[in-house]
Structure formats: C-alpha cells, structure tokens
C-alpha cells in the first residue's frame, strides 16, 4: 500500500494521523516500509497493524516511544513484552477525577518517579490543594512525560498553564449570570454551559496549534 492508502486505513480510529506522523515513526525506527526503485514507500498489511499498535499504545496507555519500541522488539523476537504498561487512560468518564491523588499515588499510577511529579508541582504544572493533587494529575503527568522526551521541560509549560487559567476565568465570567439565578436548575445550566464553552476553547486552541505546526514538517 502507498502511504495515502495506509492513512485511509488508520484514520477511522486515529483521525489526526498524518503523513508527517508516519514519517516520524519511521525515523524513530518503529516502522520500516520497503522502498520502490523510485524511492516511494510501500506498506504491507503487517506494517499497518504495527502502526495501529504504536498509535494505540500512545493514545490509550500514554507510553513513550522508547517503551513502545522495546515492546515491538520483544514481539518480533517472540518474547513477552518487557514490564507492565503504565495504567491506561480510564475507559469510563471521571474515573481518575474521582480519586484523591497524592504525589506518591500519581507516581505509582503513571510509572514515573516521585521526584518527577514533585518537579511538576514546583514548576506549577500541577497545583496541589493541601496534601492532594487535582483529579487530572495523572493525565497531566502522562502527557508531560511524553513531552519531555522531545526536550520540552516542565518550566516550558508555565505559560501554557497560565493561559489555561485565563480560559477558565473567561468561562467562569460567561456562566456567572446563570449561577446567580434563583430557580432550581441554575446550577445545572451553568455546569452544562461551562463544559460546552471549555470544550470549544480547547478545540479552538488545538486548531490554532495544528495550524501553526503544519508548516514545520
């Protein structure tokens, strides 16, 4: 298959996969398509399944590429994959958010060190309340762990956190009139509107990031 055929096969499950993503995975040694005499990449069905495995491990288990590469090597050798996976992202909504997280429990769940989680607290990426962290702490750590593989350090993320706080304030301002309503469903309406506005702002931010990075590859 050509690279365009592969993308058509994958985009049903991975809508944002791109030519540059496949080339990046090839550069990292996770996939090795054959080349025609003219230099065009050709992928087999086994290559597509290998890509599907890599993308699933990134999306569902937040595994770094180094670990995924080790697992692929073990599978190629007919051996068990080395070591347990970090806990996957929760299937049910709110599973993580209902937990009371500590630095130690976040480190244990995400397969990172206590020192790494504490560094995120120090950098302001994680914001504790007393002795606990908020419900998104584990997901934040998983994402930051992957970013650090590419040289993006916690200190680089402070402006992003500050920007998110400004977005939260904007949403809070928009829904404040609904919270002040005296009728019984004012809080419900405010909650639903806040969720919708938060989602729209997140999608807008993602769109701008993708727009800006499309020309860098």
In terms of structural class, how would the helical and strand content be classed? mainly alpha
**Count of helical regions:** 9
Q: What fraction, in percent, of the residue positions are helical?
A: 55-70%
Compressed to H and E, one letter per element, the order equals: HHEEHHHHHHH
Largest sheet: 2 strands, antiparallel
Walkthrough of the structure:
- The chain has a two-stranded antiparallel sheet.
- It starts with a helix and ends with a helix.
- The radius of gyration is 21 Å and the shape is globular.
- About 6% of the residues have low confidence.
- With 217 residues, the protein is mainly alpha-helical.
- 15% of the residues are buried.
- Helix 3 packs across helix 4, helix 5 packs across helix 7 and helix 8 packs antiparallel against helix 9.
- The longest helix is centred in the last third of the chain and has 28 residues.
- The chain is built from nine helices and two strands; from the N terminus they run H-H-E-E-H-H-H-H-H-H-H.
Which helices and strands, and how do they pair?
Blueprint: H1 3-10, H2 19-27, E1 34-35, E2 41-42, H3 45-61, H4 65-76, H5 103-110, H6 114-123, H7 137-148, H8 158-179, H9 186-213
Antiparallel strand pairs: 1-2
Helix pairs in contact: 3-4, 5-6, 5-7, 8-9
